[in-house]
Design the sequence.
């Protein structure tokens, strides 16, 4: 079974750093990209960026460029999303998803279960 | 980039059909056949329902179908069932391997 398993919920203070993870299994991790999506409380989905685990090439939405860093360790089939200095406005659910852009076909599937990040003083 | 435009809510009775629209521009929806649709139940992760405008992943009922005309894509759900009540999001590739953009989401209520 193809699945992505994310790390657990986090509670942090403003200014702290954080790295959350997304581990893939059941498929060849380097063939597909991994994307991250934010969902603020009661709001819609926002595309943050993506990484190609085969070479760690990343691209970001202009809205998130410079605010987060996406990385991956292909040796353990894991992608990461990290912040160097959290803000209260980073409070949200964060999802990773496998991104296919192969053979002229594009989709996000499957999705991880989500990681809830709460930033509060 | 602004979010793709979806109606905030739609509703229908069991057995009826509903259509959810997703309007973008020639730089996203209109420019590529890479529109996908995701279903999200409360407290759950999104689930892929339609990809490449019209394709349905295995396991998704054929009651779900997708289409596109110009800068507007649509998701049609026929034979509505209670379990279809959820939020639905469209998503489009927007070029240069750099960006994807979601719609604002539509809440489907099965009356």
Sequence:
């Amino acid at each position: 079974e193809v699945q992505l398993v994310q790390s657990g919920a986090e509670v942090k203070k403003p200014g702290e750093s954080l790295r959350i993870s997304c581990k893939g299994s059941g498929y060849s991790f380097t063939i597909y990209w991994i994307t991250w999506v934010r969902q603020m409380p009661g709001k819609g989905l926002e595309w943050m960026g993506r990484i190609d685990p085969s070479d760690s090439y990343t691209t970001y939405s202009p809205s998130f460029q410079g605010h987060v860093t996406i990385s991956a360790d292909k040796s353990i089939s894991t992608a990461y999303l990290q912040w160097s200095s959290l803000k209260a406005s980073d409070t949200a659910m964060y999802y990773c998803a496998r991104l296919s852009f192969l053979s002229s076909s594009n989709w996000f599937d499957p999705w991880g279960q989500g990681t809830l990040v709460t930033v509060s003083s | 980039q602004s979010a793709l435009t979806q109606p905030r809510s739609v509703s229908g009775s069991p057995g009826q059909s509903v259509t959810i629209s997703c309007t973008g521009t020639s730089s996203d929806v209109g420019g590529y056949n890479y529109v996908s649709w995701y279903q999200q139940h409360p407290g759950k992760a999104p689930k892929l329902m339609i990809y490449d405008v019209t394709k349905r992943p295995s396991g998704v009922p054929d009651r779900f179908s997708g289409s596109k005309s110009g800068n507007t894509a649509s998701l049609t759900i026929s034979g509505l069932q209670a379990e279809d009540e959820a939020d639905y999001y469209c998503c489009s590739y927007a070029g240069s391997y750099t960006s994807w953009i979601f719609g604002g989401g539509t809440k489907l209520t099965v009356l």
